[in-house]
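Lab channel / #folding
Pinned by the channel admin:
"Please post every new chain as: sequence first, then the structure tokens as a reply. Keep commentary short and put observations after the output so the thread stays searchable."

First post following the new format, from NK:
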Amino acid sequence: MARPGGLSAFTQADLRQLASFLAEAARAEILPRFRNLGDGAVRTKTSTIDLVTDADEAAERLIGARIGAAFPGAIVIGEEATGRDPALLDALDYAELAVLVDPVDGTKNFASGLPLFGVMAAVVSRGEVIAGAIHDPLGGDVALALRGQGAWIERDGGARTPLCVAPPVPLGEMEGIIGTTYLPEPLRSTVNGNLARLATSAYYRCAAHEYRMAAGGHCHVLLYNKLMPWDHAAGWLLHREAGGYAAHFDGTPYRPTRRTGGLICAPDEASWHVARDGLLTPSA
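Reply from TO:
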């Protein structure tokens, strides 16, 4: 199995093993608590829309323990552990092998009893995302991506369905998933005012499923501003390996070490420019 050493040391077998840890955590720690959270099991972190539950913490502990045993020397950077020790994120810049873990992505949905949440992990080597896994606990499958080797949905038994982004369309035909909650003003008002330029827009409070939708060709544009790496690294690679193009608002490439500057994902570079101009440019 893989050891610290970057892309050449991380294989499809390793990625499947990582995905199995996400599925195990979902079965053991997440699904038994879904619509079954007791008193005190849901807590506020930075705001009323930023929550943590007993499921988040228990799943992260299980996944971290499995990664530590399977990949000795790998640095595990979990969302909840980083909340207690933000310095953990510094390892992304230098670690030969770091694993970002989002134990329950879409915690607000999970805590509300909505069946739209996921479990995510991304493998990072020296600041570069080299593998990603997004498990759907209720659907029972996992979206996988390995840098340079494509992206696919894998089901029990190993059956695969390749992922491919949607074909390019004009701005007025684009379907977008647009997160404006964390945009600063006046940009937030500008983007909200421009949403009618798209065919449709939505926001599901769950990057795991939003990235899976975009990578599977079920929408055209994703827009985010708050870029915590556990929310985006796996999905960004999934989208890229499915043929998509993404960049920060200023056009620079996505890096998991950058937490500001926004992110737009589109089917190709030309569509990215159309979407950026259409959404970020104030109306005349």
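NK: Residues 12-30 form the longest helix (19 residues).
TO: also worth noting, The two ends are 57 Å apart (CA to CA).
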